[in-house]
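Technical note accompanying the year-one report. For the benefit of new consortium partners, we illustrate the data format agreed upon in the data management plan: each record pairs a sequence with a structure-token string. No post-processing was applied to the example shown here.
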Amino acid sequence: MGGTGVVLAIEGGQNHMSFFKQYILHPRSVGAVKASSKHLAEKMIEDVNFNEAENIIEIGAGTGAFTEKLVNAKQEETRLLIFEINDEFFKLLQKKYKNIHNVYVIHDTAEHMSRQMKKHKISKADYIISGLPFASLPREVSVRILKECRRNLKMGGSFITFQYTRLKIPFLRHFFRRISIKKEYKNIPPAYILNCKN
């Protein structure tokens, strides 16, 4: 597997404190008291074919647990769009990744995915990786985001997300016909990884 050759260190303690603070301030949009574990991050990207992916989108990046894995594993020519609406998380991500080739940190909601993709001259995404808490987001927001994800995935592409329970799987089936499920126990709390396809 080729990559950018970039190795980025996580400022672990600082990130966890920032994550907890933002959860207290914005519990519905942050959705967890602690950032995702490296074990969950590894499982979230293990089905991504980095050798062939041209465009990858990450939504709800938070403090960047998945972002770091994506940046380090992607090919140099692969474009990575990172959506984060939270001000503090956006600043953190922008500081870390603003100078990396073909990585774009976007301070916007995933509801505007089509607009941002057009701006970056991207027609379809091979993969959309989501850290969004659909269990706590307002239903109408989740619907708009999932419609955007389905609309902007290429044929055969994957929308990969995780949830702490299986309760939202029937809801996700309204947007994606095929969903494969894995579980990662080495996360607080344990999480289900859902690989969704049209």
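Partners are asked to follow this layout when depositing records. Residues 1-17, 19-33 have pLDDT under 50 and may be disordered.
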